[in-house]
Write a structure and sequence with these properties.
It contains 13 helices and 10 strands. It is an alpha/beta fold and 334 residues long. The chain folds into 2 domains: 44-136 and 261-328, Bordetella uptake gene, domain 1 (D-Maltodextrin-Binding Protein, domain 2, 3-Layer(aba) Sandwich); 138-236, D-Maltodextrin-Binding Protein, domain 2. Strands 1, 2, 3, 4, 5, 6, 7, 8, 9 and 10 form a 10-stranded mixed β-sheet that branches. Helix 8 (176-188) links the parallel strand 5 (167-171) and strand 6.
Length: 334
């Protein structure tokens, strides 16, 4: 009798525990879905793997100014520069894939530095999910206002007559600026000293301080010095004339001289799809705002929004293109 009663009691306890576990299993996903449905409920961060003042930083800050209109929460910028964008991008891999942290990326941080690293910490084609391609901009070759060169032709003529005498600066080895710099040397058939810097701000200081004779920087990061008259633009790296009075490489007969910097936003692949979709929609709506396009274009950027699949296709294409450029220019893998 006692044994039968004990068995009944055990069955009731087991049924009770089973029902509790079942409720737990139901509550778990509901809670997660509820959290995703409320996204975002706190500030969103954009990690910029470059120093303040450069084009990636400028683009990200403009987006951070207007994205809150769509997301209804603040968007903050965190700069983490180093190694051509690889330092901050690698650190971003440790972020939670919850959509509250986004990373800004370009060809330097996602492609060229990876291909120039023997054991790279990530593969952009697998480890990042594109949210969208925002804009691009050419590079511009500038000289200080005190320079005797007032045209690209004058510069080339002097450089050819005085091999190794001129010093040129750019921001970080393996970046688009570096490729533009090397393209000028190769296509114009000149010999100059190369001086890499850690970022756009340092490159600008070197130019204005007379430590280098010329630099290769993006149009947005060069515009303050061009407008103030502290620097003179001599050549653009892109066929389109972002600066009407400045010749392009095509104008000067430089073959295959088409290099620009593009800006995209990415998250981790495990980001929940509802969260991912919210971010994609918010970014597209923000970039397509007339006031945002106007602001980006006013500093020398071409707004050319591409959706995630378009951005992904671009990364694949540039992965192949940059691999060829690295080989052609004889850059070594470290």
């Amino acid at each position: 009798m006692g044994t039968r009663t004990e068995n009944k009691r055990r069955r009731r306890v087991c049924l009770f525990l089973t029902s509790i576990m079942g409720m737990g299993l139901l509550i778990g996903p509901v809670a997660t879905e509820s959290q995703e449905a409320k996204f975002p409920s706190k500030p969103v961060e954009i990690v910029v793997p470059f120093a303040p003042g450069g084009s990636m930083d400028i683009v990200s800050r403009i987006l951070a100014e207007y994205l809150p209109q769509e997301l209804k929460v603040p968007v903050v910028i965190r700069n983490q520069a180093g190694a051509g964008g690889m330092t901050g991008t690698t650190a971003y891999l440790r972020a939670k894939p919850d959509g509250y942290s986004i990373v800004a990326g370009n060809a330097a941080s996602l492609i060229s530095t990876v291909q120039l690293t023997r054991n790279p910490p990530y593969d952009p084609r697998k480890d990042f999910l594109p949210l969208g391609y925002i804009a691009d901009t050419p590079f511009v070759m500038t000289v200080p206002k005190a320079s005797p060169f007032n045209s690209f032709d004058e510069f080339v003529q002097f450089a050819r007559s005085n091999p190794g005498k001129l010093k040129g600066g750019f921001s970080m080895v393996g970046t688009e600026a570096h490729f533009g710099f090397l393209s000028i040397i190769r296509d114009a058939k000149i010999d100059v000293k190369q001086v890499p810097f850690t970022g756009s701000a340092q490159t600008t200081s070197a130019l204005l301080g007379g430590h280098v004779d010329w630099v290769m920087k993006t149009v947005p990061s060069s515009m303050p010095q061009i407008r103030s008259g502290d620097a003179k633009p001599l050549l653009l790296t892109h066929p389109t004339r972002e600066l009407p009075d400045v010749p392009t490489g095509a104008d000067k007969g430089l073959p295959n001289f088409n290099i620009n910097l593009w800006a995209g936003l990415f998250v981790l692949p495990k980001t929940p799809k509802p969260v991912y979709d919210i971010l994609v929609s918010a970014i597209e709506a923000t970039v397509k705002k007339p006031e945002v396009s106007k602001k980006l274009e006013s500093i020398g950027l071409t707004v050319e929004y591409k959706n995630p699949s378009g951005c992904s296709a671009l990364v694949e294409e540039q992965w192949r293109t940059i691999a060829v450029m690295i080989k052609e220019m004889g850059l070594k893998v470290n």
